[in-house]
Design goal:
alpha/beta; Quinone Oxidoreductase, Chain A, domain 1; six-stranded parallel beta sheet; 26% strand; binds NADP nicotinamide-adenine-dinucleotide phosphate
Length: 312
């Protein structure tokens, strides 16, 4: 079968013929229809995540396909693409606990785009107790996670303010947010205060770096900032008084330690929202396995604006 393969870190991926996967006890063979591309795949390609995994291996931490009895399923996690062969192959062996059923009304593309971004968005809103009346600031609003987070927050009755670095993406983002600000880290606080002088209850932050300090300053009393990525930089600082004098909380989130079965149930809940017409998935592009290096480059350059999928 054909598979994308990583032979070394920070080196081009190659597409090659490899033996079909060995299916272990408690696993199913999945015939792949789509693999999804996430920033996590970039970190893995560079070796900053999963460096202890064996090489060569097949990348791809999530995807969609069919079981041998024709069931459409999605999967993510369980070490796929990190410590064992992942989703960017014609066939993948997947632990049964990681399989999520895809219902009628949710396409393979939608399901493939929802695994990591959807569950991250859902978990971040749960962790920060977003509900009716919460004012939420979502950073990097055109991103995969943020697009879902804005919609879920709105459904919960929150007021959603979105930040984007890109004026060209305002139209797309406006469909999911009540208000959109085009701002960098230097202008964010001023732009958001114009809209919410009373402060922000919850910040959903994939950026960190220079964005962290203005976000902490923007928090209202009892505010929560959930930090789940570092797209704008791994180093940040803020005055502790900005946090403790407001009884504010800064919370970290990673999906990697979440149990595969819990993740699969969250995926199914998201698929049901798509099938019910209350959640929209923005697919930026579908590329072939042969274009895996282009996909990685587009994520690194922040030139996607939606979800990237890879087809066998
Ligand atoms: N902890 C976890 O479990 C977890 C799960 C999923 C993702 N993540 C992390 O969360 C981040 C977002 O993931 P994603 O899948 O939503 O990524 P994505 O689809 O690539 O979106 C990221 C968005 O952030 C903004 N952005 C990217 N680089 C930027 C920079 N240097 N400065 C300012 N803005 C920048 C862009 O939005 P605008 O164009 O609108 O500005 C971009 O669309 C990544 O760092 C990823 O590794 C973590």
């Amino acid at each position: 079968m054909r598979a994308v393969r990583q032979h070394a870190y920070d080196a081009p991926l190659v597409v090659e013929e490899v033996p079909a996967p060995v299916v272990g006890i408690g696993e199913s063979l999945i015939l792949m229809t789509y693999g999804a591309v996430n920033p996590l795949d970039v970190w893995i390609s560079l070796g900053s995540v999963g460096a202890a995994g064996p090489l060569p291996r097949t990348p791809g931490c999530e995807g969609v396909g069919t079981t041998d009895d024709g069931q459409r399923v999605a999967f993510r996690g369980a070490g796929l693409g990190i410590v064992r062969d992942g989703a960017w192959a014609e066939q993948v062996a997947v632990p049964d606990v990681a399989l999520a059923a895809i219902p009628e009304g949710c396409s393979d593309q939608e399901a493939a785009a929802l695994g990591i971004p959807g569950v991250t968005a859902l978990d971040c809103l749960d962790l920060t107790e977003v509900g009716k009346g919460t004012t939420v600031l979502v950073l990097g609003a055109s991103g995969g996670v943020s697009t879902i987070a804005m919609q879920l927050a709105k459904t919960r009755g929150a007021r959603v303010i979105a930040q984007t670095s890109s004026s060209e993406r305002v139209g797309q983002i406006s469909r999911f947010a009540h208000e959109v600000v085009v701002a960098d880290a230097a202008t964010l606080e001023e732009e958001v205060r114009l809209l919410a002088p009373e402060g922000i209850d919850v910040v959903v932050d994939p950026l960190a770096g220079a964005f962290a300090a203005p976000c902490v300053r923007l928090l209202a009393a009892g505010g929560r900032l959930v930090l789940y990525g570092a797209s704008a930089g791994s180093e940040f600082s803020f005055a502790p008084q900005e946090m403790y004098r407001k009884n504010a909380r800064v919370i970290g989130y990673s999906g990697l330690p979440v149990a595969p079965a819990a993740t699969a149930r969250s995926q199914e809940a998201l698929f049901a929202l798509v099938a019910a017409g209350t959640l929209e998935v923005v697919i930026a592009d579908e590329l072939s396995f042969d274009d895996a290096n282009i996909a990685i480059s587009r994520i690194r350059e922040n030139s996607v604006g939606g979800k990237l999928l890879l087809k066998p």
